[in-house]
C-alpha cells in the first residue's frame, strides 16, 4: 500500500529480502502521506465517500466516477514503480475493492496483469447468489488477467477446520493462501510445526512465477477435509 506511513520502509525491506511484492490498491482508506497532486486527494476522497457510503455500493457502476478510478489507480501504480524500481508482481485491493464494479467494467487494471481473485467457498459456506456472483466475476477475471485457481483465507480455514481440503487442491491447482501474520492465531500456525507438515510435498511459489493455469478452477466442489 503506497502513500502510507510505513510504505517506503516496507518496500525497502521487501527489496532487501527479495520478496515478491504486489500493489495493495487503496480506494477506501485515507492516505497518511498523499502525493502532492491537487487532483489526487480530491478524487480519492470521492471514491472513499462513494464506496463506504453503503456496503453494496461496490456492486454498482457509477459512470460519474470513471475518471476518478482510473486516475487514482494510475497514481498509486506509478508510485509503486517509483519506490520499488519495478512493476508490482500482482495487484490486489484493500477490502478487495480492486474487484468493485467500476474497476471491472472500466477495465482500469490493464489486461494481462496478475490480479487477486475472489475468495473461494465450498457449497454451503455461502449462499447460492453469493457464490454465483463470485463465479461470474472470476470467470471475467480469467479472461482478462492472470490469476490463481483458488484463494482461501488461512484464518477462516483454521476456524472451520477445512485447511487440509484447501491445501489438497494445491496438488493439482494454483492456490493462494492469504495470511495476516499480525493475528496471533495465524502467526502461531505459520511458525509452528503444523505449517511444516501441512505444506510438506506441495510445490510453493509466488505471483512472479504464476502463469495461466490449465485448471481454470474456482468453486472447490471436490474439496475434502
Fold blueprint:
Elements (H helix, E strand, L loop, with lengths): L6 H10 L6 E3 L12 H16 L12 H19 L6 E3 L7 H5 L22 H17 L5 E4 H7 L2 H7 L5 E4 L5 H8 L1 H7 L26
Parallel strand pairs: 1-2, 3-4
Helix pairs in contact: 2-3
Calculate Rg over CA atoms: 18 Å
Question: Could you give the order of strands across the largest sheet?
Answer: 1-2
- Series of H and E elements: HEHHEHHEHHEHH
Share of helical residues: 40-55%
Oligomer: single chain
Relative strand content = 5-15%
The major sheet is characterized as:
2 strands, parallel
Q: Which term fits the overall shape?
A: globular
Low-confidence stretches: none
Supply the number of helical segments.
9
Explain this structure:
Helix 2 (38-53) crosses helix 3. The model has no long low-confidence stretch (mean pLDDT 92). By secondary structure, this protein is mostly helical. The protein has a domain at 1-110. The chain has helices spanning 7-16, 38-53, 66-84, 101-105, 128-144, 154-160, 163-169, 184-191, 193-199, and strands at residues 23-25, 91-93, 150-153, 175-178. It contains nine helices and four strands. It has a two-stranded parallel ribbon.
Key features?
225 residues, two-stranded parallel ribbon, 4 strands
In short, what is this structure?
This protein has helices spanning 7-16, 38-53, 66-84, 101-105, 128-144, 154-160, 163-169, 184-191, 193-199, and strands at 23-25, 91-93, 150-153, 175-178. The relative contact order is 0.12. Helices cover 43% and strands 6% of the residues.
